[in-house]
Amino acid sequence: MEEEVRKRPTRRVRRKPKVRWGRVILALVILIVLVGGIGFGLWRGYQAAVSYFGGSATTETTTTADVAPPSEPNQVSTIPLEQKSLDKPIYILLVGKDSNNPAQGDALFLLSVNEQQKNIDVIGIPSNTKIYSRDNKSVSMINTMYSSGNIELTKAVVEDLFHIPIPYYVVVDEAAFKDTLDVLGSQDMYVEKEMVHIDDATDTADVNLARGYQTLDADKAYQYVRFVDADKNAFSRTQRQERFLKQLLSSQEDTFTISRMWHVWRLWSHYDSNISTTDAVKLVMSLGSLTGNNIQYYILPGTREVLNGEIFWTYDPVEAQQLLGITLGNAPIEGGGDGTTDDSKNTSAGNAKEG
């Protein structure tokens, strides 16, 4: 019996591994250092980006030949961009001028930017909007104000139209428009009709677009926004301009905020504006990931009128104030015209909304 017990194999007892606390503590220290270093690097990178795009960097930056430095064009005096209060948006007059000499403002938009509420209202002003002289003895089209007194007179007329001060402006000419498309990229759009215009001076087509879905590069996009129908309908051109603007902004929705800031920094020196490059970039950063749902489009309500053989857009001052009220957060008021037809007096001012 004793021999059988002796022959039985002894069971080995596994020792519990000792916790090497020294190694654990060392690993934790290394992990903390790595995480802290990465976090610190990301934070410093963010601060550097804000400082760089915000204009507070003290070091010089070099630019390549195809990127214009963020200088202010024509040494225009700038005004600090700020929103005074929540119910007072930032009003900016956007003017697209043609290449004529003297130039005319053939694209006019009043932009209402509420930086705090993160929304934008765009009010298109047809270029043939009727404007009375100071003595009410003669009338002119609003697009001629730019050729008569540049942006100062144009801004003053729009201020009188809406009865508000408009502190800021941005003027875009043909070259700046095309530069914008070169940076932001061609746009895929449906051209709703064939558009052909023959330039009298050269007897060649300066606008030549086929109907249908197509990609508009800088040249074709410029043709699209400047085309005027045979009946001189400036309202339909304003609709197309807003449609293109909506498409252009929508194409940037999927880009990061820092990419939008970079685009503005590259392009702003091509515009004539009393907003500094720094403030423009900061505004884009403040608005953040603004989407198309936060941008509303309208057209100045009015009716079509023929005077001495010329076609005017006669705006309704009451409806203009109702439309302005929308930018201040007021609900549309029933009973005004939307300007979509020659006789538009039985619909609401809110129906002037486009898209």
TrEMBL record:
This protein's UniProt keywords: Membrane, Transmembrane, Transmembrane helix
Return the annotated region ranges for Disordered: 334-355
**Which species?**
Veillonella ratti
Q: Where is the Cell envelope-related transcriptional attenuator domain?
A: 106-251
Membrane-spanning regions, if any? 21-43
What segments bear the compositional bias annotation Polar residues? 346-355
Q: Which domain of life is it from?
A: Bacteria
Family as reported in the entry's similarity comment: Belongs to the LytR/CpsA/Psr (LCP) family.
Pfam families for this protein:
LytR_cpsA_psr (PF03816)
Give the protein name, as stated in the record.
Transcriptional regulator YvhJ
